Amino acid sequence: MYQALYRKYRPKRFEEVFGQDAIVKTLKNALQTGQITHAYMFSGPRGTGKTTVAKIFARAINCTSIEKGEACGHCSNCNISFSNNCIDIIEIDAASNNGVDEIRELKNKVNIVPSELKYKIYIIDEVHMLSIGAFNALLKTLEEPPEHVIFILATTDPQKVPVTIISRCQCFQFKRITEESMIQRLKQISKLENFEIEEDVYRAIANASGGGLRDAIGLLDKITSYKDNLVTIEDFYQIQGSLVEDDLEKLTTSIFSNQPKLFLKLINDFVESGKDLVQIAKQLLIFLKNKLVLYYTENKKMQYDEDTVILLINKLNKRLFDIKKVDDSKTYVEVFFLSFMHDSLKQKKPMLDEKKEEPKNITVEIKNDNIPSSVPTVDDKEEISLQIKEMKNSAHHVLSSASKIELNQVKENWKKLDDFTFDSHIGYVVCYLMDGTLCAADKETIILSYEYDSMIEKILPSLEKMEKVFSQITNLKKKILLISNDTWKNLKQEFIRCKQAGIPFEKKDSKKSETEMISKESPKQDLKQQEIEENDNILALFGDIVEIK
To answer: What is the pLDDT of residue 319?
Structure first.
């Protein structure tokens, strides 16, 4: 019967253990000096050698002729401990034996002396799966263990183990196996098994295994079963349901350039061709991480916006578990990335760092480092508040001279801004403009409204740049006034009241009442006719924005 590679090449001696040098050295020194304690805890990611090292250590503890911290393999105790029939080295799976009764039974058995060896050793795997009652029962045994008993607890989740248990153990933290150590071991096995494998495949296996050597060897077993001759990187991608680098680049570009249709088409094509979306998500994480590493370490230019890449890596990393567990991973992945693209577009932050279109008439030089990022001082805040107040007053005057013709002209040219949202130099300024709602325009000025005054405070320091960029893109030289949506709503209502009442819409004297102004500016007999004429003007100016009753 065929034996899986991870079982066939499971280390039987400390010298065969890869990637855990510090732990191996400590345990070997303890064996040589005789400093053996009654309880150990091995914690760390799966597939990193916890149970394997526990078994090697258990055999070495019982060896009667230790050689440089290794079991000799020849003495009577070694012959017994290396056999499959050894009854003094007991391995317990806590995932399936996690109740109080099982641990109480263990507690009764520990008092029985070893049958053949010097020590009776209990290896409890996935110990964090024990119930609270079981932990309490185990604690009593750990507090006062018989001299002939040693416990080795192994877990992938040490934070779920009570502190009272941990404090009674000598703890060792197993680390993920490095890529180089993993590749070295895979090459050794390939040589022994006469496998023909391309160099790139070893690194791809190491990346896909997440630091677990057992998973890496299992993957090696899988891909070598696929082909009898040379295994290529394309074979690896095919078996894993992964993407080649060109497909990864296309997928990444569709996300960061906000192309949902292209993204959905790519995902659909991948699924139909048998690709695994979990593997694709993992690949995308590694792909983006590698780009960031090259960007920071080798100053290699990155096509995508750095902050947005980091944001996606963090969000995707948090959702990997959900992608694995949901029933419909395709829908989940599609909604996740569409939501990410929507949020990024809503923020209007340029996601691509390259220029999509470089217009000839744009000569203004604006760098991203000019974006105001520091917190305004008290004086700055007072000045900004004053500017906002002045713009509210100015908007009052602009509205009195605004016209539908001017507004339509601005709207027609406004579309040109779309081509510059991803421009690396002026994109953020264009996004500031497009975040606003175009309200009104006269021959010299346009009014933009924003949801909150805080948004205006943020972009106000860039107002001069906004005017310059707007002018050079649209060829319309106009000043820009920034007001809140509430201010615009009140201004609009006041405009309608004044027009219906026949009052000139200008900055009113607060000492004069509206009644006085009506009586002074408009005779009663002319009010009805004026109302009809002015309503026509209101409709001409606002179009469908305002309903006149």
So the answer is: 87
What is d(CA 259, CA 261) in angstroms, rounded to the nearest whole number?
6
In this predicted structure, the answer to whether residue 522 has a pLDDT above a threshold of 50 is no
Alpha carbons 58 and 203: distance in angstroms, whole number: 33
* Same domain assignment for residues 477 and 504: yes
Q: What is the DSSP string of 221-246?
A: HHHHHH-SSPBPHHHHHHHHT---HH
φ/ψ of residue 284, rounded to 5: -60, -40
CA distances from 427 to 301, 350, 362, 467 (A): 18, 6, 12, 14
Instruction: Assign residue 117 the CATH number of its domain.
Output: 3.40.50.300
122 shares a domain with 44 = yes
Reported as half-sphere exposure (CB side, CA atoms, 13 A), residue 242 has a value of 21
Domain interval for residue 78: 5-173
Rounded CA separation 158/127 (Å): 9
541 token code pair: 């100016």
Q: What is the pLDDT of residues 254-297, one digit of tens each?
A: 999 888 899 999 999 999 888 889 889 988 988 898 888 888 88
392: CB partners within 8 A, 6+ apart: 483, 487, 491
- Residue 303 has which token pair? 């096509």
Summarize pLDDT for 193-214 with one digit per residue, the tens.
999 999 989 998 988 888 899 9
- List the one residue out of 506, 507, 498 whose CA is nearest residue 538: 498
Establish if 407 belongs to a structural domain: yes
Query: How many domains in the chain?
Result: 4
- Whether 306 shows a pLDDT value over 50: the answer reads yes
